[in-house]
Specification:
With about 80 residues, this protein is mainly alpha-helical. It is built from three helices and no strands. Helix content is about 80%, strand content about 0%.
């Protein structure tokens, strides 16, 4: 894991209850937004045909998962 992901995991481990729920939902939303952006870009501009095809095929699933992450309860606390 890189330093950023270690920090995110540390924050989750130290949280509990509603704060954990809020942090988890926020992290999932950000991760899925980043994945959709990455796969969208690769599906359009990748030079490798297999990579482009993979990104294009995986994108609908990632978009569906992003939609589900957007439906997670946000909670009242700040992440």
């Amino acid at each position: 894991m890189n330093a950023r992901h270690k920090m995110l995991l540390t924050r989750l481990r130290s949280a509990s209850g509603a704060n954990f729920d809020m942090l988890y939902a926020h992290q999932q939303l950000q991760a899925h937004q980043q994945a959709v952006l990455l796969f969208t870009g690769e599906s359009q501009t990748a030079k490798d045909a297999d990579l482009k095809k993979f990104a294009r095929c995986a994108l609908p699933t990632l978009q569906q998962q992003l939609s589900m992450a957007e439906q997670l309860p946000k909670g009242g606390a700040k992440p």
